Amino acid sequence: MSGHSKWHNIKIKKSKVDQQRGKLFSKLAREIIIAAKDGGGDPNANIRLRAAIDRAREASMPNDNIQRAIARGTGGAEGAVYEEVTYEGMAPAGVAVLIEVQTDNRNRTVSEIRNILTKGGGSMGASVAWMFEKKGLITVPRSAASEDEVLARAVEAGAEDMRTTDEDYEITTAPEGFAAVRKALEEAGYRPQSAEITMVPKSTVPVAGKEAQQVLRLMETLEDHDDVQHVYANFDIPDEVLQQVG
Predict the structure, then answer these.
(1) Is residue 37 located within the same domain as residue 143?
(2) How many whole angstroms separate alpha carbon 229 and alpha carbon 244?
(3) Are both 207 and 192 inside the same structural domain?
């Protein structure tokens, strides 16, 4: 898991600097709209909406934009109707890829995603969803506290596991326990570097050299597509390659 989660953290930092604010806010708004549509407009009762709002605030999205998105999701404002679709595929080196999109034109989006995968040396249509499971994933910098302190607080709050990497503690939770664990860590003064409900690979594929570059280029192209909200993959790429690209 560490290879993909580290790439994800790099992309979070990178997107705040590199992505056009309009494009970033559009993706964040879509996530809020669908979260509110599926689970209601109260973030205290809708874990997905709470996480979406937190990401929007971390990106400095204005509160008025957030409230408008919630209103659209709950039927209080007009706008495009988005549907959520997940595509499955393969990247170079046998890496499994899940692509979550939110689109108002499914035919256009599937054609464009298939084209990106093909040009990037991958393919669409492989059955790979079983290789992932939905989890809460919270990363806390190792500088925040000792491993024993963070582990004790996380487990006490209901975390399932914690893995220590060179820079972070990766804490996994059941989706329903995510909010409680995050709250407990924040109350202890451990500010998460990232925190979200995600799809975690059950096992990873080591990738290096030219193939690692191909995989990361494909990930960037997919993530840059306007309709793509999340891309999950089961690669494990050396840190130095991730840092070069990130």
Answers:
(1) no
(2) 24
(3) no
So what's the pLDDT on residue 90?
96
35 with 89, same domain: the answer is: no
Q: Which residues pair with 232 in a beta bridge?
A: 98
Q: Over 90: is that where the pLDDT of 243 sits?
A: no
Q: Which residue has 């993530």 as its token pair? A: 223
Neighbour-count burial of 153, counting CB atoms closer than 10 A to its CB (0-12 exposed, 13-18 middle, 19+ buried): buried
Give 172's Cβ-side CA count (13 Å radius): 16
CA 114, 79, 66, 134 torsion: positive or negative?
negative
Q: β-pairing, 132-141 with 194-201? A: antiparallel
CATH number at residue 167: 3.30.70.980
Q: Taking a C-beta distance cutoff of 8 angstroms, is the pair 8, 216 a contact?
A: no
Give yes or no: residues 54 and 101 share one domain: no
- Cα–Cα distance measured from residue 197 to residue 113, given in angstroms and rounded to the nearest whole number: 23
pLDDT tens profile 146-190: 999 999 999 999 999 998 887 889 999 999 899 899 999 999 999
Query: Is the same domain home to 212 and 192?
Result: no
Q: How confident is the model at residue 6 (pLDDT cuts 50, 70, 90)?
A: low
Strands 235-236 and 205-206, sheet pairing: parallel
Q: Are 190 and 145 in contact (CB under 8 A)?
A: yes
Helix (H, G, I), strand (E, B) or coil at 135: strand
